[in-house]
Amino acid sequence: MQENNSSVDIASINEKIERESAFVDILSSEMKKVIVGQKHMVERLLIGLLGQGHILLEGVPGLAKTLAINTLSQAVHGSFSRIQFTPDLLPADVVGTLIYNMKLNDFSIKKGPIFANFVLADEINRAPAKVQSALLEAMQEKQVTIGEETFVLDRPFLVMATQNPVEQEGTYPLPEAQVDRFMLKTVIKYPEMADEQMIIRANLKGSFEKVNPVVSLDQIARAQQAVREVYMDEKIEKYILDIVFATRFPEKYGLESLKPLINFGASPRGSINLATAAKCYAFIKRRGYVVPEDVRAIVHDVLRHRIGITYEAEAENVTSEDIINKIVNEIEVP
Question: Which SUPFAM superfamilies does UniProt cross-reference here (predicted)?
Fold first, then answer.
């Protein structure tokens, strides 16, 4: 990295990030008490938390998605709530509502489960669009309006939504504009056999260790500020823009074969989130500057839900993952 850059003192940034990121290892090891394996998921949760974004987790039931965010909230000393999305859920069940109090002859406000630091939106694609949009407004604006009053949500505020693979019965696919609000979409795979053996043993014993609060909300707030200070060279910015623009205009990057496969490319929100996530990844690795590997490590999670594929791509069994792989392999690394 440009050590000789006079306007940016990489050494002092590095020192600060090393200091501020000390809690990452403590937090990870505290979560490992309960979460066996799934390192990828835990890392993505931390990136969402540090980048002040939200996460969409996709995977079959039973892969510890609920357990992961609950464990994170315990380790961070934050409040946790879970909303089970069902086809009969109403927006008021998420954000809250006005209740008439006969004694006082007046309305009082009953806040919904959205008022927590960590909100698990379980099986988000089982609820109709009206409820999904109520949740997504809160995610975007970080505030909720009930009646005529507006309430600012607590910070940090992290929504982790889980969805079953779309082929499953009784699911409403999330519209593109709503999916775009999620900083990351992480696909969770089954655990390795050795990990699953440990999971079986721990469950049969009933001997899960207690998760202790090891990080304060103030420390998280400081870390969120520190992430912004991670140095990103202009070459890395250009690399991020090349990747995103290649999803929109593949022919300009010698990828003409992708043109008929892409319906629409990543939005500017994709560029912002890719840059933010790369900084968060560098922070987790306790570095004060971003390297191309940080971008490559996180690019699938940031872009997989932001590229629309055509019917032609579906017919050829080409996924957004395949498109990202081709782009990342083609774009020159700085």
Answer: P-loop containing nucleoside triphosphate hydrolases
Whether 2 is in a domain gets the answer no
Q: Look up tokens 């009053």; give the residue.
A: 149
Of 39, 135, 124, 141, the residue nearest 85 (C-alpha) = 124
Q: Are residues 95 and 198 located together in one domain of the fold?
A: yes
191-194 long-range contacts (CB < 8 A, ≥24 apart) are 191/36, 191/37, 191/38, 191/63, 192/37
Residue 294, domain extent: 231-330
**The domain boundary residue, chosen from 219, 248, 281:** 219
Query: Cα(73)–Cα(75) distance, rounded to whole angstroms?
Result: 6
Residue 299 · residue 328 · CB < 8 Å: yes
pLDDT at 279 over 90: yes
Q: Which two tokens stand for residue 247?
A: 């999803």
Task: Looking at the structure, tell me whether residues 77 and 169 fall in a common domain.
Answer: yes
Q: Is residue 201 part of a domain?
A: yes
* pLDDT score for 7: 60
Beta-bridge partner residues of 56: 161, 185
3-state secondary structure of 208: coil
Q: How far apart are CA 10 and CA 288, in angstroms?
A: 7
Number of domains in the chain: 2
Distance CA 226, CA 20 (A): 7
User: How many whole angstroms from its chain centre is CA 105?
Assistant: 43
Judgement on whether residues 131 and 39 belong to the same structural domain of the protein: yes
Distances (CA, A) of 66 to 159, 161, 318: 12, 9, 30
**What is the chain's alpha carbon radius of gyration, rounded to the nearest angstrom?**
21
Query: Model-level pTM?
Result: 0.86
Determine the Cα angle at 208 with ends 204 and 212, to 5°: 175
Residues 116 and 178 in one domain: yes
258 vs 132: which has the higher pLDDT: 258
Could you tell me what percent of the chain has a pLDDT over 70? 95
pLDDT attached to residue 12: 84
Tokens matching residue 97? 């509502």
